[in-house]
From TrEMBL, chains A, B:
Sorted UniProt keywords: Coiled coil, DNA-binding
GO MF term list: DNA binding
InterPro entries in the record: Tscrpt_reg_PadR_C, Tscrpt_reg_PadR_N, WH-like_DNA-bd_sf, WH_DNA-bd_sf
Transcription regulator PadR N-terminal domain ranges (all copies): 9-82
Organism of this sequence: Caldalkalibacillus horti
Name of the molecule in the record: DNA-binding PadR family transcriptional regulator
Coiled-coil residue spans: 114-148
DNA sequence: GCTTACATGTAAAATGTTACATGATTGG
DNA sequence: CCAATCATGTAACATTTTACATGTAAGC
């Protein structure tokens, strides 16, 4: 079984009402390294949860901007989310293209492999810096477990970059023999 | 775009022919932390690659055991895999239930949160030990980039456990104030 | 004048998981 | 005798991505 988008949606609405557009924003900002869902996934999920009476829609008329559909969680929705919180934690499901490529690295040229690794190291450094900045900026408004969440993200990207740097040295030794 | 199973299948066949069953075995053993595919995904992928002339099937008649379908990569298949190796590396796609739960941790009881974290720490310690054992056992037969792959897995699980242990301390301080 | 942000949604296609179906042999 | 390993495959269902469709307003 895999983590379903509907639980993430319900989790967000547990604290405050928001629109599908707002949710996607949240995913991009705070969920980057552990969850993502496209609009084509968010909107149908909202429609389905509404049909199941887990959420109710409120249309907010806005001038200058398109109207907004704000969803509010119902008691049924709260129950469903609480059931989720009491269900067993699922394993992380990861699809890491870089690791797949490295596994087959012997079939690629050395330059290609080095490029993959160097680009990833650089990318991860950027992400670590961004997450750290974000963390400093909002930690006062975050719960302790949310802080841990961000920390897991930071350490994940940092650990991967470290391993890749060590890997570069290994490759260097390998080619010099 | 997401990493497609067909490229992983082609990658395995690039070195030697094997069956769908063998592939699943490989995924479980060496790809655990960065890729997985069920039989219901592997077999249809093989059927489709065969239709596209990327692989050819050889039926091996076995006594005592069910017959085996060994697939061999064709030149078309090799080209497709080489194209993949030269395409841009995709970002990791992660769905981490634990992080989602921690993000919403304030809605769960403290015991529940502690249970989530302690269980994950224990699980990761087991995985690290297994990967390390496996690494020692087969590193002589592995390419350098494959070693890096295993190392990324080890460090990923270790870093997450470390962060969670630090998180437990944070939670402790938090409750004592 | 172009892009970005705001905002929602659908349809087609791909992709995937789970459960089912089958059936022999080996090891505890 | 029961579970696991060997081995393949399908069907139903769930889920998701991508592309399309629409339209305003602000900022550069």
């Amino acid at each position: 079984m895999q983590l379903q988008a509907k639980y993430v949606v319900l989790g967000l609405l547990y604290k405050r009402s928001m629109s599908g557009y707002d949710m996607k924003k949240q995913f991009e900002k705070y969920f980057t390294y552990f969850f993502d869902a496209s609009y084509g996934s968010v909107y149908p999920t909202l429609t389905k949860l509404e049909q199941d009476n887990c959420i109710v829609k409120h249309t907010i008329i806005q001038e200058d901007k398109p109207n907004k559909h704000e969803y509010e969680i119902t008691s049924t929705g709260r129950e469903l989310f609480e059931e989720y919180l009491n269900s067993p934690v699922l394993d992380d499901s990861i699809r890491a293209d870089l690791c797949v490529r490295l596994f087959f690295g012997e079939f690629a040229s050395k330059e290609t492999v080095l490029k993959w690794m160097n680009e990833r190291i650089k990318k991860n450094e950027t992400i670590v810096a961004e997450l750290q900045e974000e963390y400093e900026r909002i930690k006062s408004e975050m719960s302790v477990t949310q802080e841990i969440t961000i920390q897991i993200g930071i350490d994940y990207h940092r650990a991967q970059a470290d391993t890749l740097r060590k890997g570069l040295k290994l490759l260097d030794q390998d080619s010099s023999t």
